[in-house]
Amino acid sequence: MKYYLIVGEASGDLHASNLMRALKQEDADAEFRFFGGDLMTDVGGTRVKHYKELAYMGFVPVLLHLRTIFSNMKRCKEDVVSWRPDVLILVDYPGFNLSIAKYVKAHTHIPVYYYISPKIWAWKEYRIKNIRRDVDELFSVLPFEVDFYRRHHYPIHYVGNPCVDAVARFVSSTRQTFEEFVTQNRLSDKPVIALLAGSRKQEIKDNLPDMIRAASRMEGYQLVLAGAPGIDASYYDSYLKGTPVKVVFGQTYSLLRAAKAALVTSGTATLETALFRVPQVVCYHTPMGRIISFLRRHILKVKYVSLVNLIAGKEVVRELVADTMTVKNMERELRSLLFDEQASRMMLEEYDRIIGILGSPGASERAAHKMIALLNK
């Protein structure tokens, strides 16, 4: 069968590439065409555009690149219709993908599947109408989404979480010790505080400087930054110059396994940090912090922004967002995790409960098996 996939960022590239491999195991004749990244390209098929040409974050960058965004949408719609796949598989990235789904559903008979469903439970709940109209099958990787969509009378398939797969695969295949990690990266033998400042330039700009200021106050620790995929090393230079921070690329999981604690920008990284059982503080700066905090309390439909807390259904990790993300608050919370044994132990116990909720590895394989079974009907 012919599969057309669309992703818009690095995490989507990772999860889509694993799904593609699983589809190939189920369907030896699988053909792929996609808007994606390097990992998907490694699996095989034809890449129409790289996700880096799609990803714009924030009101102003989006406004400045509207012509490019609309051009990419037009190209994508035309390409899907022209190639006539057996199924269109959308991966997260709802602002772009829901527009594609609407067009494809209105102009073709191509089934539309959504893998890693849009997070409309956080806000924009009205999008359920679009999903009902334009998406044939929805595949969730977050267990609490099942109840949310059930309340809207829209059945979905929970297939497990691909982060569980990725971490399990890394742990089973990589035996690198702490000593080997620090030697390979020319680090000291001090315990590590990991900094995960986001995957986009705007996130890095907003979060990294204050993360560094807070973590630099921890005596006896070295600070190591996870360089984001798709971000040139030179971009970090202005932020790291004159600081003790070292940066490593392509080694986020190795860094997390070596870390004693972490400052993490909200997103998939918070869940990956939990899966490695690293105590963390979630930090997410937004412009106009007080206004955003007000809107968060009155507009967002959920209490939390981190996947860890959303899955747990309570505050397991401290979230410093908008006006609460200050150097003082980050320093206090980080110091508690490093020097208060009870606080870190309680967090690790909750991590274990969350890991149990997520279920066993095999999300990509379960999703691929279910997709092909549905298509064969």
How would you classify the helix and strand content by structural class?
alpha/beta
- Distance N to C terminus: 14 Å
Uncertain segments are 56-64, 288-299
Based on the coordinates given, report the CATH architecture of the largest domain. 3-Layer(aba) Sandwich
What count of structural domains?
A: 2
Rg (CA only): 21 Å
The largest beta-sheet arranges its strands as 3-2-1-4-5-6-7
The top-level CATH class of the largest domain is: Alpha Beta
Write down how many β-strands occur, each being a DSSP E stretch of 2 or more residues: 13
Shape: globular
Q: What is the CATH topology descriptor of the largest domain?
A: Rossmann fold
- Name the helicity range: 40-55%
Describe the structure.
This protein has 377 residues and is an alpha/beta fold. The protein has two domains: 2-160 and 362-376, Rossmann fold (3-Layer(aba) Sandwich); 166-358, Rossmann fold. The protein is built from 18 helices and 13 strands. The protein has helices at residues 10-26, 38-43, 59-64, 66-83, 94-107, 128-134, 145-151, 162-173, 178-184, 201-215, 237-240, 252-258, 268-275, 289-298, 307-312, 327-339, 341-358, 363-376, and strands at 2-6, 31-36, 46-50, 87-91, 112-115, 137-140, 157-158, 192-196, 222-227, 246-249, 259-264, 280-284, 318-321. The protein has a seven-stranded parallel β-sheet, with helices on both faces. A six-stranded parallel β-sheet has the order 10-9-8-11-12-13, sandwiched between helices. Helix 4 crosses helix 5 (94-107). The longest helix is centred in the first third of the chain and has 18 residues, at 66-83. It is globular. The two termini are 14 Å apart. The model is unreliable at 56-64 and 288-299 (pLDDT under 50).
